[in-house]
Amino acid sequence: LSELKRAGEPGAMDGLIGRPEEFLKNLSKKGLSPTALDSLSACPFQFFASRVLGLAENDEPSERGEVAPWLKGTIYHQIVAKFHLQLAQSGFWKKPDASWKKQLQNQIDEAFREFGWKELGVYPLLWESTKSRMAFHLESFTARDVVEISESGLIPSLFETDLQATVDGRRYRGTADRIDEGTDGKRFRVIDYKSTWGSWKGALDKKVLAMQAHQPPLYLEMASAARIGQAMGIFYYVLEESVELTGAKSIQEFSGSAWTSA
């Protein structure tokens, strides 16, 4: 009878987990990421289920041969990060020219050799089509990026940089895809790559002020704690968007002035 009673007592499967010591320990040590804050703001229970209980959602199988959005994002990030690191190491920005096209193509070819249709579980023909579209977006976006960098004087200098800061007694952490620094040593900006802008139709600054995006202000806070100079802002570079193709801007900005006045 005592065993049956113990078996019938509510526990973790009933939502009674007690004090989540391990979660609180990690939270105190590592801090929260902006993505975690977005999850908490959007749905506290989803945050509890995924971050505290560890109930992750299953990845959707590629039954129709489609590449999962998160995987496309991973491939985009890998290509662009290696590409810009190669440009920085070669001294490209001292005298920019058309050689970036060959270097970008080399990184695209290398990534697509690593991510084949068999490894991704997609049909060969659909993967070839997806690769062509991704290469087109990368080439179109990079052409605009190279021109903008040359004109702005803000040169890519740091890549996949860990950031952290304590704000109002709470620790936060994140990883900046790219940090551009001014040739005068007095300015910097944070760059974050996105595949698409999604269903959000408004500008990034409006999304931040609506408390629907915590990454921009926190990244600027963390980057400013580590960098010397004026923060020009954080820029979302959306690789698959353009006014011509989708009607959405390929660059979304949350400026330094908006951050300091918020």
Description:
- By secondary structure, the protein is an alpha+beta fold.
- Helices cover 49% and strands 19% of the residues.
- A hairpin with a 2-residue loop joins strand 1 and strand 2.
- The longest helix is centred in the middle third of the chain and has 29 residues, at 124-152.
- The radius of gyration is 22 Å and the shape is globular.
- Strands 1-2-3-4-5 form a 5-stranded mixed beta sheet.
- It contains 11 helices and 5 strands.
- It starts with a helix and ends with a helix.
* First-last Cα distance: 62 Å
**Count of DSSP H/I helices:** 11
Number of strands: 5
How helix-rich are the residues, as a percent range?
40-55%
Sketch the topology as an H/E string, one letter per element: HHHHHHHHEEEHHEEH
Low-confidence stretches: none
* Strand order, largest beta sheet: 1-2-3-4-5
What structural class results from the helix and strand content?
A: alpha+beta
Largest sheet: 5 strands, mixed
What value does the average pLDDT take? 83
> Rounded to an integer, what's the Rg over CA atoms?
22 Å
Shape: globular
Give the percentage of residues in beta strands: 15-25%
Topology overview:
Elements: H1 2-8, H2 21-30, H3 34-42, H4 44-52, H5 69-90, H6 100-114, H7 117-120, H8 124-152, E1 154-167, E2 170-182, E3 187-194, H9 204-209, H10 215-226, E4 230-238, E5 251-255, H11 256-261
Helix pairs in contact: 3-4, 5-6, 6-8
